[in-house]
Amino acid sequence: ALYVSMKVGITSKTDPSKALLLDTGAQHWEQMRHKDSSNGTDDTTPFKRMPFVAAEMPKLRAEGYDLCATGDALRAAAVQDPKIWEHVEEISVYARMAPEDKERVIRALRERGQHTLMCGDGANDVGALKQAHVGVALLSGFGSANTAKDGEKALEEESAEERKKRQAQAKLRAVQKAGEAKAQAQKDKAELQELQKKWYEEELAKLEAKGEQWAQFKAMKIAVGRLVEEQKKRVAARGGAGG
């Protein structure tokens, strides 16, 4: 993706080292040195690292860097620093994106007031195509069909096949996502219960040490407040309640 983006002018053609790739763990931006191999593949080697801080992304862009991220890195970044969704327009190249990653980026761009166009050529692009202001779906050719009538027939057959495939994939993703969400909810519930208990005991000890009246009630109120805030943080870290 970096090689292609350089060739078509999305990233710098004159200084390829200006490309910064967010590492999978979203801890650093890795400055890449491109080695244009004879077979046209993208051979890159990191030779400098910069800490990842979402708020610093506009500054890096202003300094002439081209920011690049994969779907895995983007998801990790959202956990590390949810403010990355406020700076998605600073990223020039997105690569190896899952369907839900594409949708989330398009949605974030729209929320930022950007006008969006999505161009896709497969069933895994359907969600993002729908999210964009303008969706351009690319279709394969009609083989040896030479007439409009034959072409229309081939298009109908292809569309039905693609639709069936897309629906099956969407159903599978929905089942997987539901299972993951259920497992995460159970994990969160256990963790939050432990945190609430810890916070309650800490606050109760403080209040009793001060001789406060209704110490138990006040401690529980504070613990519940912290619990609500923690839940909000976790939702935001995963891209929002709707995302």
From TrEMBL:
GO molecular function: ATP binding; ATP hydrolysis activity; ATPase-coupled monoatomic cation transmembrane transporter activity; metal ion binding; P-type transmembrane transporter activity
Regions of compositional bias (Basic and acidic residues) in chain numbering: 149-164
Membrane topology: Multi-pass membrane protein
Signal peptide start and end residues: none
Main location: membrane
Subcellular location field: Membrane
A single GO cellular-component term on record: membrane
Record key words, sorted: ATP-binding, Magnesium, Metal-binding, Nucleotide-binding, Translocase
Gene3D superfamilies according to UniProt: HAD superfamily/HAD-like
Region Disordered, annotated ranges: 148-168
PANTHER family: CATION-TRANSPORTING ATPASE-RELATED, CATION-TRANSPORTING P-TYPE ATPASE N-TERMINAL DOMAIN-CONTAINING PROTEIN
Protein name in the entry: Uncharacterized protein
Annotated source species: Pyramimonas obovata
